[in-house]
Amino acid sequence: MTLPLQALPTPRPEFEDPAVLAREVIDRLTYRVGKDPKVAKPHDWLQATVLVTRDRAIEYWMNATRQTYLEGGKRVYYLSLEFLIGRLMRDALSNLGLLDSMRSALKLLDVDFDEIAELEADAALGNGGLGRLAACFMESMATVGIPAYGYGIRYRHGLFRQEIIDGWQAEMPETWLEHGNPWEFDRREAAYTIGFGGRVEYNDANGKTEHYTWHPQERVTATAYDTPVVGWRGARVNTLRLWKADPIDPIRLDAFNAGDHIGSLTESNRADALTRVLYPADASPAGQELRLRQEYFFSSASLQDILRRHLQQYGLFDNLPEKVAIQLNDTHPAVCVAELMRLLMDVHEIEFEDAWKLTVGTIGYTNHTLLPEALESWPVPLFERLLPRHMQIIYEINARLLKTARHDHEMSDDEIRSISLIDESGERRVRMGNLAFVGAHAVNGVAAMHSELLKVTVFKDLHRIYPDRINNKTNGITPRRWLFQCNPGLTQLITDTIGPVFLDDIERLRDLEPYATDAGFQDAFARVKRKNKDALTDMVRDRIGLRIDPNALFDIQVKRIHEYKRQLLNIVETVALYDQIRTHPERNWVPRVKIFAGKAAPTYHNAKLIIKLANDVARVVNSNPIVRSVLKVVFLPNYNVSMAEMLVPAADLSEQISTAGMEASGTGNMKFALNGALTIGTLDGANVEIREAVGPENIVIFGLTDAEVEERRQNGHDPRKVIEGSPELSQALSAIAGGVFSPDDPGRYAELVGGLYDHDWFMVASDFDSYTAAQRRVDALWSDPSVWWEKAILNTARMGWFSSDRTIRQYATDIWGIAPRPD
Question: InterPro entries attached here (predicted)?
Fold first, then answer.
C-alpha cells in the first residue's frame, strides 16, 4: 500500500539529544554488535555509532524515495566506474546536524569520537579526481534536492594499497571490506543477469519487424548494494547503488565430487574477478577483456535497473527522456549507448529510430580528457567476441552517422575517418569516446578551457555535425567535506567573523574580503593553519618516521602520478634548489617542506620511476646536515581521501603544474585554495577560472600557454638546447642521470632524463626556468607574512563559486531538465 505523504516518517525532536543518542549507541552495541559495553573495543563502538547514524539517515532516505515516487518527478542516474566516497560517518553526522550531539553522546559513554572515527575504513571505490568528483556530485545532488542514484561497482579491493618499499611503489590488496560495511544494504531483489559472448539470432517471422535475440554463452548475476548519501541538513538522502558479481552456479558440484576441485569453481572465479579490482592492468589481452567485462557488467546492470523502475512506475517508454536522465562519467560507461539500444529494441521491441531518439534524449556524457589515448577504445575482435549484439548495433549507428556526414555535411575522407566509431588507422578498434558523443544529447567538458579545446581537438569534426552539443560544466567540490569537516578550525573562525550564513550559501564567503588586511584576523587565520600543520607534522612522523618543521612553508603536490601532471618538474626543481642551498648557505633561504603523494598505475613504468626518484631525492636531501634545516622532501604512501583531509587544510602552497592544455579541470586546486593555500600553476584546466576568481595577484602562474605548447609541438622544439641554456636545469639533470641520487644503480634515471633531452613532450625543460622563477616569487611572498596571509584569506573568500552545488545546478537546468531546490 502506498502511504500518503503526511504519514511518512519525519525526524523527531529527540534526534539531537545526546542522552538519547547514547542510549541508542548502547542498544546497537548490545543487540546488533553483540558486545557488553564493559568489554567493547574501539571498533565495536565505531560499528554501533555508524548504525545509529545510518538509522537516523534512513528516515530521511525513505521520505525522499517515496516522495519522488508519489510526485512522479524526474530522476538522475549517474554512472561512474569510481566513487571515491572516503569515510562516511563524520560526513553523515555533519550533514544531519548531529556531529556535536554524537560527540557529546559518546563522551557520556567515555568513548572518544575522533579515536573511533579514525578506525572507519576508507572505501576503496576509486583512484583520484574522477572518483572524488562523483562522490562530491552525489552529495551535492542530495543537498540541492535532486532525486538521484549513483551506479558503480562494489570493488572488494579497489585500486590497490600502495606501500613504498626501498623507495619503490609496491601494490598490495586493499582489504576495506574485510570486516563488512555497516553502511550498505544488500538488495538481493535487485539482481540482473549479465551476458557475455555467444551468438545472435535473427528473426523476421512476422514479416514486418526485425528482431534479434542474443544468446550469451556466459552469464553472471549482478546484485545491488545500496548506501545512503546524505545531503546538507538532511535536505535529501539519495542512493549509491553498487553492483557485486555472483556466479549463476557457484560450483559445479559434479565436477568437484569427481575430484576437479579447481575447474569446478571456474565460473565462480570469473564472476568474482569482475568486482575484485578497480582498473585491472590492460597491457595484456586478458587484462583488456576483464576491463571491458567490468564496464559492460555495471552498465548493463544499471540500465536494466533503470528501465525496470521506469516501466514499473509508468508502464511505457515514450516518456523516458522526460523522466530519466542518465549521465555517463567519462567513457567507462560509454557502452551504455549500445546496451540501451539493445534493451529497447531486442527486449522491449522498439524500432531502431524510436529507440535512438529515446537513447540520445536520455543520455548525457561528461568528458574528462583531451588526451586521445585516454579516450578508451577496444579491439574490434575482442568487442565482437564478448558483445556480439552490441557490435552489430554500433555498426548500424556508425553507418547512419557516416552517411549523414558524407551527404549532409559533405565531409572529406579524413573527416569521415575522424568521426567514425571504428578506428581503422591500425588495428581496428571501437572508439568509445565517439560512441558516447553521438549517443548523447549533451557532451560537457569540466572547465571552460577544456570545453573549448574539445571543439578544436579530439571532437573537432563531430562538433561540426553537432555544433550545439558541447557545453561546459566547470567542476566543483562539496564545501561540507572540503571545508566544514576537514577544517573545523577555519570553519569556526569564519562563522565567528561573518556569521553562519555561508554554511548554506557558500558564495557568502566573499563577506570575508574586508578582513583580508585585518591584522587580528590574519593572526587568527595563521593560528588555524598552524594547528593543521601541527597535525600533519604528527602524521608524517607517525607514517614515515620523519620530523618536519611546521614553521616551514608546506609545498604540497598530491595527485595521481602521471607525466603530464609533472611531478618530475617539481622534483627536478627540488634538486636544483638543493644544489643552490648547498652552494650558497649564507643566503636567507625560506624553509620548505616538499610533500608528494599519489599512486602510479601498476604498468606505468615512468610514473613508478618518478615515485622512486622522489624517494631517492628525499633520502639524500633529508640526510644532508647543511640543507635539512631549510629543505625536507616527503613522499607519503597510499594517498586516499582520509589523507587528503589532513593535507588540504595544512597546505601553504598548492602545486597545480600540469602541461598547459592537458589537464581537463582538476579539483585538488579548488580544495587547497578554499582552505587558504596559494596556487602555483600553469594556465591549465580550472586554474584559468581560479585565477579569474581569486585575482591574478593572488595566484602564481608560470609557463607556456596551451597555444604555445601546441605551437612548439607542431613546429618542433629543441629541448637539448633549452637544457644546455639553463645552468640550474642542466646541473640538476646531470646529477639525477649521473647517479648522485641512486648510487646503488647509477644508470637508474638515465632513460628518464634522456627523454627530456630527446623530445620533452610534456615541456618539463621548456617550463623549468619559469617555474623556478615562480618559486622564488613564492619565497618573497612568504617572507612578508602580512602579504601572504592577505592573499591566502582572499583565496578562501573567493572560492565559493567552485562549489559542486553550483555545478550540479547547472547540470540540472542545462542538461538534465530538472528543477533543483531553490537556494
Answer: Glycg_phsphrylas (IPR011833), Glyco_trans_35 (IPR000811), Pyridoxal_P_attach_site (IPR035090)
Question: Phi and psi (nearest 5°) for 800?
Answer: -60, -35
Query: For the whole prediction, is pTM greater than 0.90?
Result: yes
Q: Would you state the cell numbers that stand for residue 548, as one nine-digit string?
A: 618536519
717 is catalytic: no
**Quick check: 444 and 364 in contact, CB under 8 A?**
yes
What domains does the chain contain, in order, with CATH numbers?
73-88+123-474+808-816 (3.40.50.2000), 479-800 (3.40.50.2000)
8 A C-beta contact, residue 474 and residue 446: yes
Q: Which among 95, 358, 147 is positioned nearest to 812, based on CA atoms?
A: 147
Q: What burial letters (b/e) apply to 640-654, b meaning 16+ CB within 10 Å? A: bbbbbbbbbbbbbbb
> Pseudo-torsion of CA 365, 810, 478, 73, nearest 10°?
-80
* Contact between residue 812 and residue 818 where contact means Cβ atoms under 8 Å apart: yes
Helix intervals (H) in 623-698 = 641-650, 668-674, 687-694
CB neighbours of 318 closer than 8 A, spacing ≥ 6?
none
Q: Which residues pair with 214 in a beta bridge?
A: 200
Question: Residue 559 catalytic?
Answer: yes
At 206 the pLDDT is 60
For residue 563, what are the contacts with CB-CB under 8 A and spacing of at least 6? Answer: 606, 607, 610, 761, 762
Gap between the terminal Cα atoms of the chain? 34
The one-character DSSP state at 659 is P
Q: 567: closest CA among 609, 539, 536, 537? A: 609
Q: Which residue out of 559, 566, 632, 806 is catalytically annotated? A: 559
Express the helix, strand and coil content of the chain in percent, nearest 5 each: 55, 15, 30
Do 713 and 700 meet the contact criterion of CB atoms below 8 Å apart? no
**Amino acid, single-letter form, for residue 797:** A
**Strand locations in 120-184 (E):** 148-153, 161-165, 168-172
CB 28 within 8 A of CB 111: no
368 carries an active-site annotation: yes
- Choosing from 474, 574, 667, 796, the catalytic residue is 667
SS3 458: coil
Integer CA distances (angstroms), 811 to 452, 669, 677, 690, 711, in order: 17, 21, 28, 20, 34
Q: Are 114 and 485 in contact (CB under 8 A)?
A: no
Rounded CA gap, 544 and 538, in Å? 10
Q: Residue 542, Cα to own-chain centre: how many angstroms?
A: 27
What is the number of other CB atoms lying within 10 angstroms of the CB of residue 55?
A: 12
193 membership: H or E segment, kind and range: strand 185-196
Q: Exposed, middle or buried by CB within 10 Å (0-12, 13-18, 19+), for 626? A: exposed
Annotated catalytic residue within 560, 592, 599, 806? 560
Q: Cell numbers of 188, please?
A: 538481493
Rounded CA gap, 384 and 386, in Å?
6
Closest CA to 799 of 667, 685, 702: 667
- Catalytic residue (choose from 54, 156, 310, 368): 368
Q: Residue 636's closest CA among 488, 537, 778? A: 537
| Catalytic position from the list 565, 566, 599, 748 | 565
pLDDT along the chain (823 residues), means of 10: 38 77 97 96 98 93 76 92 96 96 97 96 91 97 96 94 97 93 94 96 71 94 97 94 89 57 60 89 89 97 97 96 98 98 97 97 96 88 98 98 94 95 94 98 97 95 97 98 97 98 97 98 98 98 97 98 97 98 94 98 96 98 94 97 97 98 95 98 97 98 97 93 97 98 97 96 98 98 98 98 98 95 71
Contacts of 663 (CB under 8 A, 6+ apart): 450, 564, 565, 656, 684, 685, 687
Q: Tell me the residue length of the chain.
A: 823
How far is it between the farthest Cα atoms of the chain? 92
208 a catalytic residue: no
Paired with 255 in beta bridges are none
